[in-house]
Amino acid sequence: MANHSLNLLVLRWRILFKVLPFVTLFCLIKWITHQLGWQLGTFDSQMGSLLGAVTFIAAFMLNGTLTDYRICEDIPIQIVNAIETIQDSNLYLAVRKPEYDPQPLTQGLSDIVKSILLWLEQSESIEQIEKNITDLNQLFVAFAINSDAPIVARIQGEQAKLRVLVARIERIRDTNFLTPAYPLIEILLVSFFIALLIIGTDEFMINLMISGLICLSLSYILVLIYDLDNPFEYDGKSSADVDLSPLKKLLEQLQPNRLQGLVLSNTLMGSTIPENEK
User: Tens of pLDDT along 9-29?
Assistant: First the structure.
């Protein structure tokens, strides 16, 4: 619990710690330009227009990445739902047909979860995930012999859903959708920061404080956009990776010892199944 709270704290402040050195350097350079008398103008309507343009573009990009991020957050949950649906049918059949062994299919589902986690967190090959999903076809044969066609069609639909979700993660992970927009926002930010460095006021300390806060805010937003643009990065540098805890929790539930307990519990309840369904 303590480690979890510490990780949340680190994630919350990571972006701030990233941009603080740059902001400190910016303030130092501004102080040097003031001491050397290199401040050439004052804040006017043109500077206000430039600030408005930078803020608008940054807000527009942030809104787009946040929308995509919310969609990405649901993908691990959808994967968990698909696998749990297959597993529920697997355990149901084990109770309905005592001669049916649910362990092979459970192991196949566990292998899928493991390969997904290894792919995302350790950059393992995606081919192993595709192979594990395809291998479900062989495991479905024994399931189909003992089950009804509608149930088999249902779990095959969940298998197809897994393929779609993995392909969606791969596309999101390998594609930076905002890449063409980054040069624009970066050019505007550099231009605005240079302008802030050479603009002076009668009250230098107030000017320095406001310029530093503006630099901090815009730099923070830019780094946040970078992180949100690839929510499946998991390189230890991003502060906005999608939470994989549902997949890790599911992997624990698919372990053999957990399965034996579930099958035993369901077997004790097997007498409640009508005889015409056995």
Answer: 667 788 888 899 999 999 999
